[in-house]
Specification:
Mean pLDDT of chain B: 87
Largest sheet of chain B: 2 strands, antiparallel
Oligomer: heterodimer
Strand content of chain A: 25-35%
CATH architecture of the largest domain in chain A: 3-Layer(aba) Sandwich
Number of strands of chain B: 4
Number of strands of chain A: 22
Number of domains of chain B: 1
CATH superfamily of the largest domain in chain A: P-loop containing nucleotide triphosphate hydrolases
Low-confidence stretches of chain A: none
Number of helices of chain A: 18
Shape of chain A: globular
Largest sheet of chain A: 6 strands, mixed
Number of domains of chain A: 2
Helix content of chain B: over 70%
Low-confidence stretches of chain B: 1-15, 367-371
Shape of chain B: globular
Mean pLDDT of chain A: 85
CATH class of the largest domain in chain A: Alpha Beta
Strand content of chain B: under 5%
Number of helices of chain B: 15
Largest interface: A-B, 44 and 37 residues
């Protein structure tokens, strides 16, 4: 591979995390003044690669070359010194500080005696904002700006440090269509100023519109690199998913019978006003696998959280196996009645990291293991063994800390915890996030088995091939509403994607 | 399937158990080892240290910290803190003293009701639990951080103790035969098998608390709340209720200590228990309980109380000045936490090493299969 016209080259970069190889000997190029698109499914290694470039993570092996010279990037400060800037999906701004204070945070312009040169900072901020065509006073508090405007402040922050390489992680996930247009115009201008962009997104149509070079990662390996002229939607999907996606899952036919869960007009207010879940109604039957597809921020997670009782302020009616749930039913009561949720963020909401595998598995159903009033080790042990065996959790000793397991096995621990509560309806939020391909297959097999046993399985995903492969029925969510429903026979990739980006007004229009 | 099984077995056989790594074992038992070393040193340097009389006094004194520490352990396991225990000790002593000397005064009727000692004890314990419940409610319902809520209660309860008698002491709490409320001094001075009641109370509480922590759903939930509150909540743990209960336990333990001290002095003084919350936190931390919650044991706390107790007693016996004693105690507490951090880091390292070697091995197996 020629490296003459490459500004940055990552050579044979490998990153090993406990339990998983996130990147394996990946070669990655950044072309100067171009939009370098990085694609891959969740867990493919995109974010790891990005963190290595930004100095947040350090590669286990491999070298980074900037202008052909090896560099070490051990901290975000190092990265900044080399002209590498990053804009995370979750914005890293201080809402309590002004625009100019945010832009110069930790790089303040100071006088000889160490005080901040306020007016100089504001002058430069004004220039930057003009360049980005954002009509905002430098003294405005960042918290008073719209999300789209805050995103542009992030860009201004990077530009203030004279970035040569700007990494953008899902920059459009929170933006409106007009704001996306503005962002794309800014990106084109940055290209003209010879800034190299690394652009990461799930929105394939956007990528085709803005990308110049495409790099595809799959399961920690680099599978393809090509210029935009050689790239099409089919090419991306084929490279991302691999040749035979359906081979992973062996789906059984499910005979769906009676309604186990019925939801009517469920709404959840958003903290900043409006509704994050907007009058959602649906039902799931026994033995059915219902897929809920939607982009991030569509309200899917909040929908499931409202059902399990995490948001008592939610309104609407929920019937579980014929009986109505009230707002007074808390999470414990709902679990007792047969609901279970496997949360999206395993580390944040699924596991107690300081506890053993066994204690994590039994946490939600401790009352089942009582002898009079104390926990019987024997009963607990057999409950744990049952799940470890059924779900094939690979663990040498269930007394080991749960964090010693790989991602896939950790996820199975969370699944096992839910199954011990003997649910009727199992809700799974992005059940395959951050686990390897083999474990994904196993998780799907488990869902399959549960449906065959007569459970209703509801799963949320942002991966098309998962809904296509697994769901008996698909609901598509966008902006808090259900915008489409498909039976298995009418499923098509195009229709699902189309429904996920439109709003309800567009549907009814 | 059988292939996968044999692979698992092989990798288990290869990797050493982290918990049995000698370095980890040493670090985990460090407080016990420190206690042992202290005992050996003082037995040689202070001839009167290992006498039965001294040992009984020693344990009787440290029982106070141990009992407070037991309650504090539950609070700290949930990731909270209870700064109000010293003041609860004070106010509970005053309530018991007042009930014995003045009775429950009913101004409307112009009479006082005197209770017998078991009822006095019961009422005092109820007051301690009630104050703990208030702590818990302020923390969970009104979203006040435990530090601030219990700091406020530290002042509030101390104020209450002072107001009860306008700052005066309730002296000579022996009761009157005619009122049927004699026998209060027995709590502090009575013995079973030559051991004073406070020692027995400590032993009984330690056993019950260990059982509750390890063998009941409540105990498991305490650890879960401290380990990951959000995961516990989604698992159906009633987090707020668990938190209220731990502050009630802490309040209960403080009330018991209030009764013991008042009984030993045969007098209730409103300043009793000042700064005891700091001793309680110190023994808990010394016992290896993490201030972040989710990790720690009752046994550790008891050992921590013994270390502080032996240290203080021994230093007095070998004639160290009180000022040196205070400084050394502080040094020991900081050292304990530094070593604890070291242990945590070593454990993380060992887990990482193990996991990495496993993954690399698997990748090699995979690669080998592909070749």
């Amino acid at each position: 591979m020629t490296t003459e016209n490459v500004i940055f080259h990552a050579e044979k970069v490998t990153k090993v995390y406990p339990g998983t190889v996130a990147l394996q000997e990946v070669d990655f190029n950044i072309y100067p003044g171009k939009v370098n698109v990085l694609i891959g499914e969740n867990g493919a290694g995109k974010s790891t690669l990005m963190k290595i470039l930004a100095g947040v993570e350090y590669p286990t092996s491999g070298t980074l070359l900037l202008d052909g010279k090896p560099i070490t990037v051990r901290s975000p400060r190092d990265a900044a010194r080399h002209g590498i800037g990053i804009i995370y999906q979750e914005l890293n701004l201080y809402p309590n500080l002004s625009v100019s204070e945010n832009i110069f945070m930790a790089h303040e312009l100071v006088t000889a005696v160490g005080t901040i040169r306020e007016s100089e900072q504001q002058r430069i901020t004004r220039e930057l904002l003009e360049r980005l065509e954002l009509d905002v006073e430098p003294k405005t508090l960042v918290g008073d700006l719209r999300i789209g405007q805050q995103q542009i402040i992030e860009i201004a922050k990077a530009l203030a440090q004279n970035v040569r390489i700007l990494i953008m992680d899902e920059p459009t996930s929170a933006l409106s269509n007009t704001e996306v247009e503005v962002l794309f115009r800014i990106i084109r201008e940055l290209k003209a100023q010879n800034v190299s962009i690394v652009y990461i997104s799930h929105k394939l149509d956007e990528l085709l519109q803005i990308g110049d070079y495409f790099t595809v990662l799959r399961d920690g390996l680099l599978v393809a690199e090509a210029p935009a002229s050689a790239v099409s939607l089919n090419w991306i999907v084929e490279k991302m998913v691999g040749r035979r996606p359906e081979a992973l899952f062996h789906r059984s036919e499910h005979a769906a019978t009676r309604d186990l869960l019925r939801v009517d007009n469920l709404s959840l207010p958003r903290s900043g006003g409006g509704l994050i879940v907007d009058h959602v109604s649906f039902s799931v039957r026994s033995g059915e696998i219902l897929g809920i597809y939607g982009l991030m921020g569509a309200g899917r997670t909040e929908l499931l959280e409202s059902l399990i009782g995490l948001h008592p302020e939610a309104s609407g009616s929920i019937w579980l196996d014929g009986t109505a749930l009230t707002n007074r039913d808390d999470i414990r009561t709902r679990i007792r009645k047969g609901l279970a949720l496997i949360p999206e963020d395993r580390q944040l909401r699924g596991l107690v990291q300081k506890q053993s595998v066994a204690h994590n598995i039994t946490l939600a159903s401790l009352s089942r293991f009582l002898n009079r009033f104390y926990l019987s080790s024997g009963k607990e042990r057999s409950g744990v063994d049952q799940e470890v065996g059924e779900l094939r959790i690979k663990v040498s000793d269930v007394a080991n800390l749960v964090t010693s397991l790989s991602g896939g096995n950790q996820q199975k621990v969370v699944v096992g915890k839910s199954l011990l509560t003997e649910p009727k309806v199992l809700m799974m939020d992005e059940p395959t996030r951050g686990i390897d391909v083999a474990a994904k297959g196993e998780i799907f097999e488990i869902m399959n088995q549960l449906a065959l046993k007569g459970l209703a399985v509801v799963f949320v995903t942002s991966e098309l091939k998962e809904v296509l492969a697994m769901a008996d029925r698909v609901l598509v969510m966008a902006k808090g509403c259900i915008t489409a429903e498909f039976n298995r026979s009418e499923l098509s990739q195009e229709a699902i994607v189309a429904a996920s980006v439109r709003t309800l007004e567009e549907v009814s229009a | 399937m059988s292939q996968a099984k044999s692979m698992t077995v092989r990798s288990t056989a290869k990797k050493p158990d982290i918990r049995r790594d000698p370095r980890m074992l040493f670090l985990q038992l460090r407080t016990l080892i420190a206690l042992f070393i202290l005992v050996v040193i003082f037995s040689f340097t202070a001839p009167s240290f290992l006498t039965t009389g001294n040992l009984i006094i020693l344990v009787k004194q440290l029982a106070i910290n141990a009992i407070l520490g037991i309650g504090m352990t539950f609070v700290i396991l949930t990731g909270g803190i209870d700064l109000s225990v010293g003041s609860i000790v004070g106010i509970c002593g005053m309530i018991a003293g007042g009930l014995i000397n003045e009775g429950l005064i009913l101004p409307i009727f112009g009479v006082s009701i005197f209770f017998n000692i078991p009822i006095v004890i019961l009422l005092t314990l109820l007051v301690g639990m009630l104050i703990g419940m208030l702590n818990g409610i302020v923390i969970t319902r009104f979203n006040v951080t435990p530090f601030i809520a219990t700091l406020g209660m530290l002042y509030l309860a101390r104020g209450g103790a002072l107001l009860r008698s306008n700052g005066a002491t309730f002296p000579n709490l022996v009761g009157l035969e005619a009122l049927g409320n004699t026998g209060f001094p027995l709590i502090g001075t009575g013995t079973i098998l030559n051991l004073p009641y406070p020692i027995w109370l400590m032993i009984v509480f330690a056993i019950i608390a260990t059982f509750v922590a390890l063998k009941t759903p409540f105990g498991r939930q305490v650890y879960a709340v401290g380990g990951n509150e959000r995961a516990a909540e989604l698992s159906g743990v009633r987090v707020n209720r668990v938190k209220v209960y731990v502050y009630m336990i802490s309040g209960f333990c403080a009330a018991v200590v209030g009764l013991i001290l008042t009984s030993q002095l045969v007098a209730a003084h409103p300043a009793t228990g000042t700064n005891y919350e700091l001793n309680a936190i110190a023994v808990v931390v010394l016992g290896g309980t993490s201030l972040n919650g989710g990790r720690g044991t009752i046994f550790g706390t008891i050992v921590g109380a013994f270390v502080i107790g032996v240290l203080n007693n021994g230093m007095v016996l070998i004639g160290l000045s009180e000022f040196v004693q205070v400084a050394i105690t502080g040094f020991v507490i900081i050292l304990a936490v530094v070593i604890d951090q070291f242990q945590q880091r070593l454990q993380r390292q060992l887990v990482l090493q193990q996991a990495t070697s496993q993954v690399v091995e698997q990748a090699q197996v995979k690669g080998g299969a592909a070749d």
